[in-house]
Amino acid sequence: MARDSFRDRAVVIRSYDFGEADRVIVLLTRAHGVVRAVAKGVRRAKSRFGSRLQYFVELDVQFYQGRNLHTITQADTLAYFGAGIIEDYDRYACACAALEIAEKLSGMEADEDPYLYDALVAALAAFQRQDPTQVLDRFLLQSMRHAGWAPQLFECAACQAPGPHHAFHPAVGGAACVQCRPPGAAEVDPETLHHLWLLLQGYHSQATPEQVTQGHRLARAHLQWHIESKVAALSVLEHEGSKMGRRDYA
Q: Can you give the pLDDT at residue 238?
């Protein structure tokens, strides 16, 4: 019996060479979650769609189903987000981190849930024109909220005492009051937590560079604590001189 084919919107999140001329493309799709597929002959100069199967491009892709890997039979460009990203190191690093994070979070959601795909596409568009660290942290926070484990940023995550508070630790779920703060909790500026709250709600933040840096470290620490693994692309976003300092969980 012939195998089925299917079509979906997709974004390339990772790729690696396969054989002499092929490449395995890992894509986040809107309706099928993460899909791994072979793009045959894509490394040849005359490939008919090789230039489209790149980072920061939204695609309309036709897949032929295989046992272990699908095959990409057609790929059409829907939107190109690379302009403004690939020429700027900070934007490129943040956008690559968003791709890696999307892959890690996709395993925690149902394949048919389009939220993560839509959020990633919106983030890629925003990277072109907005502060990249804030775009990345907004994507992180809102994706964690959708997954059900966004950090508490005003009330104490342990006892719900109203804030603002001056401590944060992923183990308690975010902000912590004086009575509930665990050993190793980060001392934070309450305005940093307010900055993260604004991003979580989708608002623009007028935070200082120091608050943006500290907020990024908190968001990153919370993510990596809950997924129980490091996100390699986030390591390049380390900023020197942060007032937060380094913690075991960061």
A: 65
Q: Report the Cα 173 to chain-centroid distance in Å.
A: 20
Q: Nearest 5°: phi and psi at 146?
A: -65, -35
Give bridge partners of residue 12 from the DSSP assignment: 27
> Which architecture, in CATH terms, is 5-80?
Beta Barrel (2.40)
Mean pLDDT score, 227-250: 58
User: 3-state SS of the chain: helix, strand, coil percent to 5?
Assistant: 35, 20, 40
Whether 59 and 75 have beta carbons less than 8 Å apart is answered as yes
Residue (of 67, 63, 79, 80) closest to 29 by Cα position: 63
Residue-wise pLDDT for 23-63, tens only, equals 899 999 999 999 999 998 877 767 777 678 899 999 999 99
Which architecture characterizes domain 89-237 according to CATH? Up-down Bundle (1.20)
Q: Does the pLDDT at position 3 exceed 60?
A: no
Provide the residue ranges of all domains of the chain, joining segments of one domain with +: 5-80, 89-237
Q: Where does residue 245 fall: left (phi above 0), alpha (psi -120 to 50 degrees), or beta otherwise?
A: left
pLDDT tens digits, 65-119: 888 889 999 999 999 999 989 999 999 999 999 999 999 998 776 677 899 999 9
Q: Given this model, what pLDDT does residue 236 score?
A: 67
> Is-contact 159 153, C-beta < 8 A?
no
Alpha-carbon gap, residue 222 to 215, rounded angstroms: 11
Which run of H or of E encompasses 13?
Answer: strand 5-18
The secondary structure of 21-76 as a DSSP string is TEEEEEEEESSS-EEEEEETTTTSTT-SSGGGSSTTEEEEEEEE--SSSEEEEEEE
Phi, psi of 76 (to 5 degrees): -120, 140
